[in-house]
C-alpha cells in the first residue's frame, strides 16, 4: 500500500473522527490508531471510552500524548493504515509540557513522510470563532492555525467536516 497523507479538519463534534475511522476502515489489513487524548477528568474519560467503542477491536491503539513522531517511527512499516486523532489535543499537551512547539510541529511533519501506508490525521478548526479573551487561548488558536496549515500543505487530500458532512477541499494528484 502506498503512502498518502489525508488531513481531516472540522469543528468540535463535527463528525471528523467518525469520517476518518470510516474511511480508514475501508482499507483492508492491519490498522493502527494513535490517540493523543489523556483522561484527566471523568468527562474526558467518557469521550475516550466512546471513541474506543466506535473503533471496535480491529485497531492496534497507541496512546501517546506527546511523542507521536516516535510512535510513527516505530510503526512506519507495520500497518496498512494509520489514524492520528487528534492534533489539537496533541498541541495542547505540548503547550502544557512547555515544549518548543514550532520545532515539534516541524519534526512531526517530517515524520509523516516516513509512514508507508495511508495516514489519516484529524484536527480541530479553531480559528473561525471569536478572538479569545486571554493570551494562552490566543496563543493556542494561533499555533493550531500554524499546525493545521503545515499539515494541509503537505497532505495529499484535505477534507473539512461540518455537521457530519465531509467536503474534499484538496486533492493532490
Distance between the first and last residues' Cα: 16 Å
Strand runs, count? 7
Read across the widest sheet, the strand sequence of neighbours is: 3-2-4-5-1-6-7
> Can you tell me the number of structural domains?
1
Number of helices: 6
CATH topology: Rossmann fold
Beta strand %? 15-25%
> Which spans have pLDDT < 50 for at least 5 consecutive residues?
none
**What's the CATH class label?**
Alpha Beta
Q: What is the residue-averaged pLDDT?
A: 93
- SS-based structural class? alpha/beta
Specify the CATH architecture: 3-Layer(aba) Sandwich
Helix content percent band:
40-55%
Shape: globular
State the fourth-level CATH superfamily: P-loop containing nucleotide triphosphate hydrolases
Task: Please describe the structure with a list of short key phrases separated by commas or semicolons.
173 residues, 7 strands, 7-stranded mixed sheet, Rossmann fold, alpha/beta
Tell me what the structure shows.
There is one protein chain. The chain is of the alpha/beta class and 173 residues long. It has one domain (4-171): P-loop containing nucleotide triphosphate hydrolases (Rossmann fold, 3-Layer(aba) Sandwich). Helix content is 43%, strand content 24%. The protein is built from six helices and seven strands, in the order βαβαβαβααβαββ. It has helices spanning 16-25, 42-55, 68-75, 87-96, 101-112, 135-154, and strands at residues 4-10, 31-35, 60-63, 81-85, 118-124, 157-162, 165-171. A seven-stranded mixed beta sheet has the order 3-2-4-5-1-6-7, with helices on both faces. Strand 2 (31-35), helix 2 and strand 3 form a beta-alpha-beta unit. Helix 3 (68-75) runs parallel beside helix 5, helix 4 crosses helix 6 (135-154) and helix 5 runs parallel beside helix 6 (135-154). The longest helix is centred in the C-terminal third of the chain and has 20 residues, at 135-154. The two termini are 16 Å apart.
